[in-house]
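Much of our argument rests on the idea that a fold can be written as discrete symbols. Part of our work consisted of pairing the sequence of a single chain with a tokenised description of its backbone. No coordinates are needed to read the tokens, only the vocabulary itself. The record that follows shows the chain in one-letter code together with its fold in token form.
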Amino acid sequence: MFKTRIIPTKPIMILEGEKKHIIATDLHIGFESSLASNEIFIGKNSSINETIEELSSVIDQEKPDSLILLGDVKSSIKSISKSEWDEVPLFFNKIKQKCDVVLIPGNHDANIQRLVPDNITMISSTGMVEENILLTHGHTMPSENFSHVDKIIMGHVHPVYFQEDSVLNGQRVWVSLKTEKQNIFPNKSGEIEVTIIPSFNRYLYATHKKNIKNQYHQL
């Protein structure tokens, strides 16, 4: 039976059973290109190096069998930017030296197969199941083929806490909730737990309240 835990202060989940996996989502590598178009500049290569170093540190500490990425590894949606051509393969090659890597594509990962090295496991965007847990990006409703699961772990939403008089205002947060299973799988009864992992990219998340129902995800 798989057990889950989170790493305090890190947007990373640990999934432990016969094997041990670390789970992260929404890296948005190459996001600087869109910021630069709005005359917002971040130091060259600073964020990709930061991403590699932070994940490498967790891998060294936890010694997992694999890293599972829940989508949006790259930032542009329909195209591949120049920085993504350089940085996405660099990221995968560096992390693969430490553990296996599994990619579940998200809505920003169009054509990412052109950037993914051969030694990376890339599966369907519908997600993957580990025992009773569905791992998915979260931008589409899960298939009825996964209706037996009791828990969904996803990204996509980039949850942020908003309370102006709180020290947590504007901080990335975890979301965990239970809902009726029929809300997701109409032909099933009972409850299902949904956990939303915060965006790994600390630069790319909401800075003000938004209508999640209309803007973010199917779930």
Q: What stands out?
A: The first helix runs from residue 32 to 36. Residues 3-196 form a domain with the Purple Acid Phosphatase; chain A, domain 2 fold (CATH 3.60.21).
